[in-house]
TrEMBL record:
It comes from Cryobacterium fucosi. SUPFAM superfamilies: SP0830-like (SSF160379). This is DUF1697 domain-containing protein. InterPro entries: DUF1697. PANTHER family: BLL4334 PROTEIN (PTHR36439), DUF1697 DOMAIN-CONTAINING PROTEIN (PTHR36439:SF1).
């Protein structure tokens, strides 16, 4: 049995509202067990005995799209890998006045394209470092979503392959007790 985190992109914003009970029910309807939502921003933990992550991802995206009537995109990561991503965060996550983020992606070429912009960023405002299948990003809190990197990751062409989470959200995912 493997525990996964499904990181949904774009729910409970821009008119796409999904109740967490309904979201959890969708995962359970697919045969996954221990489904648990964490926060109301599209984070679902679940267990499965299936091993084909690509097939699981495709099945979940299809079910979300069919059930809730929007184009669903998720990043699927097992909790062991998620723990490694959090452990390897290269910046001081408690740095006063800064937000610690991780950008997850399903297309290595897209993450590479975004990482290629890192040398041009102003380190007084934000920093980006490539990790194993993710980008680590730290941004000045007062700049936040208006930063150059934030504006870049928000472009439509990246929506289907990337999603960003605050490191504190990832800690909550890892610390969430099993459903039940």
């Amino acid at each position: 049995m493997t525990r996964f985190a499904a990181l949904l992109r774009g729910i409970n914003v821009n008119g796409i509202t999904i109740a967490m009970n309904d979201l959890r029910g969708t995962f359970e309807g697919l045969g996954h067990t221990g489904a648990r939502t964490v926060l109301a921003s599209g984070n679902v933990l679940f267990d499965t005995d299936r091993t084909d992550a690509a097939a699981i991802k495709a099945q979940i995206e299809r079910a979300l799209s069919d059930t809730f009537g929007y184009q669903a995109w998720i990043v699927l990561i097992d909790t062991g890998s998620l723990a490694r991503v959090v452990r390897d965060y290269p910046f001081d996550p408690g740095r006063e006045g800064w937000h610690p983020y991780v950008v997850f992606g399903t297309a290595p070429a897209v993450l590479g394209e975004l990482a290629a912009e890192a040398p041009g960023l102003d380190p007084a405002i934000e920093r980006v470092v490539a990790g194993d299948g993710v980008l680590y990003w730290q941004v000045l809190r007062s700049v936040g979503i208006t930063s150059p990197f934030s504006r870049m990751t928000g472009k439509a062409r990246y929506r289907s392959t990337t999603t960003t989470r605050n490191l504190r959200t990832l800690d909550k995912l890892l610390g969430a007790p099993p459903a039940g």
